[in-house]
């Protein structure tokens, strides 16, 4: 395999990057949407704007049936070291959920990430409906709760929040949330009491409601919308393509709503019989509902639907600890995740010692280059030998320019005479390409790099270099590497190869600075290795 094959491999990788850069819309900040809708401050936020304004401790009392006063609508606050949550007695639903460890912007004074995103008048997340049941009370019905506020900042014991609703003389519903001091996971039991004498057939749907701005520019590097693990496969749904609704499953291990770095997911305790319904209404509200299995509650008895909720960051270690394969929500891709996940684990392990992800990236780059050092040497040596054969190759091309078969035979004989394997030049590159793209995925989607500083002007490794310094230096290192690389005698081939640094420089201008740092130091080490080989064979 000659230099043209190597060129084809390099150009193939470049085409993939060019496609992502120029033919897929890059992430942008969305413009201000119409009045009375939420707005977006940053592309990676789960819910980019504050939820509806908090209600007072007791809202105005609406008249109930027969003129009797109804239960007051009020907010119940839950405080833990990880998040601040607010629940509304209307629907016994989630009014606000702020992640204390993650800010909307890099600025230290920026507000924490808000996971609830609805427009005024929309139902809140974690409402419960009973579609296809013998009795289906309104999902936004009023609940009662004896709890005022819960604080778990000092207490190590789990605490419960219980909502109760009575539906006529037929059914009573309890929603029991259990919170933990050191977990993003929340347990939820929906208990159904049959107050009548006849059996009650019920099938609960736990719903996550999310406003999605139809004018929001699509982020080519991240999915924002419904996601689920169905029969061990990850299903992602584009909210713009939801028309009449979609049903996934059964065998839904978990399902919910995600953005690039955050996710709200529900784990049913009986996934084999659970399906996920996805719909969108005229208010641009996307609803993800986990349904099933159906239960039959005898008269005077009770039964339960049990779930675990996860509302938090896409941190690999945290997601892995849930033991439901939630770590697959990180968009590493179905093929590259087997490389990306181990690389992320190594990166986090290095961080424990250096406490700087930029330095951890550099150290991991050095380790990868050391692993592939023998292959790199063999590749460079092969290219150097191939370069020395160029005069004889030209002689053969002139001699057999009208006979391709004879030219091929003589070329292979020339390789055998000089003990050159044409595959040895490109095979090491082929082996390293999957590793590069695995690391590319790791650095692109790892939440650990979000708002993580390196040095000086680079204060967020997940964002582009604000002054484009590292991409330009990276382009210069590629140019120097190209000048040092042995090339064939084809002038057009040489010109194309020299244009590669220019193309890659423009591509990397918008890439996360963490990825640029990896590529830059990879080039620097490769230059050193190439210099060593050139001196050795000079």
Mean pLDDT: 80
Structural class: alpha+beta
Major sheet: 8 strands, antiparallel
Distance between the termini: 23 Å
Specify the helix fraction band. Answer: 25-40%
Using only C-alpha atoms, the radius of gyration works out to 29 Å
The number of strands is 20
Q: Provide the spatial order of strands within the biggest beta sheet.
A: 7-8-9-20-16-15-12-13
What would you call the quaternary organization?
A: single chain
Strand content: 15-25%
Our count of helices gives 11
Low-confidence stretches: 1-8, 18-45, 47-69
General form: elongated
Total domains: 2
Describe the structure.
This protein has 538 residues and is of the alpha+beta class. It has two domains: 3-24 and 341-536, no CATH class; 123-328, Beta-galactosidase, Chain A, domain 5, CATH 2.70.98.90. The chain contains eleven helices and 20 strands. It has helices at residues 3-23, 316-320, 337-354, 357-371, 373-388, 390-399, 404-417, 423-445, 469-484, 491-508, 513-536; strands at residues 75-79, 83-88, 93-103, 112-114, 127-129, 150-151, 159-167, 171-179, 185-194, 200-202, 205-211, 225-230, 233-236, 246-248, 252-258, 262-268, 275-280, 285-291, 295-297, 302-313. The strands form four sheets. Strands 7-8-9-20-16-15-12-13 form an eight-stranded antiparallel β-sheet, with no helix packed on it. A five-stranded mixed β-sheet has the order 4-3-2-1-6, with no helix packed on it. The longest helix has 24 residues, at 513-536. It starts with a helix and ends with a helix. Residues 1-8, 18-45 and 47-69 have low confidence and may be disordered.
């Amino acid at each position: 395999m000659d230099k043209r094959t190597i060129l084809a491999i390099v150009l193939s990788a470049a085409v993939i990057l060019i496609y992502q850069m120029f033919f897929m819309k890059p992430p942008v900040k969305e413009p201000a949407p119409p009045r009375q809708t939420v707005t977006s401050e940053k592309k990676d936020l789960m819910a980019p704007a504050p939820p509806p304004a908090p209600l007072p401790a007791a809202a105005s009392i609406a008249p109930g049936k027969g003129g009797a006063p109804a239960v007051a609508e009020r907010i119940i606050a839950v405080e833990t070291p990880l998040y601040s949550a607010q629940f509304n007695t209307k629907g016994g639903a989630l009014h606000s959920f702020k992640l204390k460890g993650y800010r909307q912007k890099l600025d230290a004074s920026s507000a924490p990430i808000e996971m609830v995103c609805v427009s005024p008048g929309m139902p809140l997340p974690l409402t419960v409906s009973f579609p296809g049941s013998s009795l289906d009370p309104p999902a936004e019905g009023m609940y009662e709760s004896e709890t005022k506020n819960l604080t778990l900042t000092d207490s190590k014991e789990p605490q419960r929040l219980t909502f109760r609703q009575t539906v006529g003389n037929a059914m009573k519903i309890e929603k029991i949330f259990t919170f933990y001091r050191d977990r993003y996971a929340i347990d939820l039991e929906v208990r159904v009491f049959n107050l009548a004498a006849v059996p009650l057939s019920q099938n609960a749907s736990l719903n996550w409601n999310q406003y999605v701005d139809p004018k929001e520019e699509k982020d080519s590097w991240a999915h924002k919308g419904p996601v689920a693990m169905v029969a061990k496969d990850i299903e992602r749904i584009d909210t713009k393509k939801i028309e009449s609704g979609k049903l996934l499953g059964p065998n839904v291990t978990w399902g919910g709503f995600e953005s690039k770095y955050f996710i709200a997911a529900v784990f049913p305790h009986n996934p084999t019989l659970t399906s996920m319904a996805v719909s969108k209404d005229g208010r641009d509200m996307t609803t993800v509902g986990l349904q099933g299995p159906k239960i039959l509650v005898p008269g005077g008895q009770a039964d339960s639907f049990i779930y675990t909720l996860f509302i938090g960051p896409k941190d690999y270690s945290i997601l892995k600890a849930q033991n439901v394969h939630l770590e697959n929500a990180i968009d590493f891709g179905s093929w590259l995740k087997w490389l990306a996940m181990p690389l992320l684990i190594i990166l986090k392990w290095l961080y424990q010692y250096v406490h700087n992800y930029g330095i951890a990236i550099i150290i991991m780059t050095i380790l990868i280059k050391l692993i592939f050092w023998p292959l790199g040497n063999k590749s460079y040596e092969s290219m150097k030998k191939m370069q020395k054969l160029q005069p004889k190759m030209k002689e053969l091309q002139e001699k057999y320019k009208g006979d391709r078969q004879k030219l091929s035979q003589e070329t292979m004989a020339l390789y055998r005479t000089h003990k050159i394997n044409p595959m040895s030049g490109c095979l090491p590159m082929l082996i390293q390409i999957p590793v590069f793209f695995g690391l590319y995925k790791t650095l692109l989607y790892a939440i650990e790099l979000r708002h993580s500083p390196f040095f000086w002007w680079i204060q967020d490794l997940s964002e582009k270099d604000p002054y484009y310094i590292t991409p330009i230096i990276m382009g210069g290192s590629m140019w120097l590497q190209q000048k040092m690389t042995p090339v064939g005698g084809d002038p057009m081939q040489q010109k194309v190869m020299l244009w590669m640094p220019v193309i890659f420089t423009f591509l990397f201008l918008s890439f996360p600075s963490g990825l640029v740092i990896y590529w830059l130091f990879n080039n620097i080490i490769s230059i050193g290795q190439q210099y060593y080989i050139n001196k050795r064979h000079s």
